[in-house]
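Predict structure. Chain length: 410.
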Amino acid sequence: MVAGQRSSKPSVLIVGGGVAGLEGLLALRDLAGERAALTLISAEDEFIYKPLLVEEPFGAGPAERHELEPIAREQGAELVRGTLRAVHPEERALDLDGESLAYDYLLIAVGGQFRPALEGVTTFPSRGEPFSVDAVLDRAEQKDHRLAFIVPRGASWPLPLYEIALMSQRRAGQRRIDAEIAVITPESAPLGIFGPAPSTAVSELLRARGIEVLTDSTVREVGSEGIKLSPGDRVLGPAEAISLAIMQGPAIEGLPSDEAGFIPVDEHSRVKGLEAVYAAGDGTTFPIKQGGLATQQADAAAEHIAHALGAAIAPEPFRPVLRGKLLTGDESMSLSADVAGGGGEADVSADYLWWPPHKIAARYLSPFLYHGESHEEPEPPDSLDVEVALPKEWHEEPMALDPERPISPN
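Prediction complete.
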């Protein structure tokens, strides 16, 4: 469609050029076909494969990038550059920078915003240039070779912190630095969100690498005297510290949000209280902010929109299956779990648990980036994963991911 030209077809606007936005675009093109005029709106020219940002501090080069314009064109969509400022649901319109666009259906996939959780530490991810692990190790030599990797309370996806800790331990060994490394986390067990078997495997890996794990611990302050922990008045000695950032919601004018700015959605990714408005990914109230889950939300939204446009499909609700690939600096470890609970055993393996074996397991985006055509569930041959219904409370009452709060399967 020519820019600015109004199509006679229903207009579907997808806001966000990240994982959820591209998954939504690919899914809608496949499911709705030519029933809709698709527009992808992005503040950036490129799609960045963010799970690989953890490799940048180790000199692996910039994360994988893809220009959005050729992707949109290939899917028969128009690409519009702009930042979303407000949505007017009654008018079915939205405001960009100095421009308004009408829509028949709207999918919001703008993600969240990271902010530092602690002062006096290196934060990952950050808005600036990636930090250098070699520089961190140099500074640690001035602090008795001690390194602390911190999962702050409120962090919604702790896996990258464990990757950085493991790869830093490997780099320290390569440099013959006898580093004393600790992970501090409010979790009851490392990556406990995946369940006992994967968490035990990660714990054993950390132990084998000589990395101490302080569970059920929250960092209150990092200073020259050391690292102050809760509960109690525990203080660790001075250490060079790296902390995950915590995320805030997009807080979009015209859309409902919780106190942190996240958008409440139902099991079909519909924004609560609004018609024809959907949201997927990190910007929603779903407590786990992870790329694979974001694509599953986008698929649920795309199916519901396509059905409304007349496609002969039965829209399935969002059923979260968590798949995470842990980079270790040597081999990788694949972890899979039914995060809703009650759906069977979790799985952990040094082999592939899904295909293509990307960091993000997505029905459409993974094969697209892998130059394939399959739109099946991202499972390898002879592999079984269990999907169950989403816990009702996750849609009725938005909540933050609290490692001390059990997740009810009912």
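Summary: The chain has eight helices and 23 strands.
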